[in-house]
Amino acid sequence: MSVHLNPYIGFRDQAREALGFWHEVLGGELKTMTFAEGGMVQDPADAEKIMHGQLATPGGLLLMASDSPSSMPTPTESNVSVSLSGDDEDLLTGYWEGLADGATVIEPLTKAPWGDTFGMLTDRFGVTWLVNISGAAA
């Protein structure tokens, strides 16, 4: 079992460009998924925006980024979220429950269309957290 802490950088329309640049600079493997590919299009203008992008380098760096859909506000104070991910369901669920105390839940921790369990919240200090449990049971 494992848990990872990853920076997750938010954009309105520049995630693809930023990830491409970081890939050129850092190397590694770049994976992206658009809102259309993820089955999460609410506004057709968002279809080709990056729903999730991930750059993993041979040296162990992991950088994630996405575009905000038009239904969500553009990040203003900070465009960085904290993402906790892994396959330790009990530990990650415990983190979620602790962070949820006094938080604003943006997306409840539930089974996501891509097969994992996912949730997003802004904690009582204004920090946005994403929790993704790989392959967790429904």
UniProtKB/TrEMBL annotation:
Pfam families: Glyoxalase (PF00903). Coiled coil: none annotated. Residues 11-129 form the Glyoxalase/fosfomycin resistance/dioxygenase domain. SUPFAM superfamilies: Glyoxalase/Bleomycin resistance protein/Dihydroxybiphenyl dioxygenase. This is 3-demethylubiquinone-9 3-methyltransferase. The lineage of its organism: Bacteria, Bacillati, Actinomycetota, Actinomycetes, Micrococcales. It comes from the Bacteria. CDD domains: PhnB_like (cd06588).
